[in-house]
Amino acid sequence: MNKNDLIGAVADTSGLSKGDATKAVEAVFDAITGTLAKGEEVRLVGFGTFSVAKRKASTGRNPRTGEPMSIKASAQPKFKAGKGLKDAVN
After folding, report:
1. In what order do the strands lie in the sheet with 48-55?
2. What is the DSSP-derived secondary structure letter of residue 63?
């Protein structure tokens, strides 16, 4: 399922027009993105938790030349599925 499929499913399930469903899906994505950008987490009970994991700077190797190279510290978005989602999938 891609974003357009998700918008279509939201429109069908909720009875919203496709334009309104697009606005709703975009608003949810923007809210989650904005919260993660602040370093906070988003908990959706029964679905899961979006959070930010901090990666330390490290040294890696260039696969072509084998030369050591430094990898900058970064923040990575992370998702942990909740019990309701796990139960629905299994």
Report:
1. 42-44, 48-55, 74-81
2. T
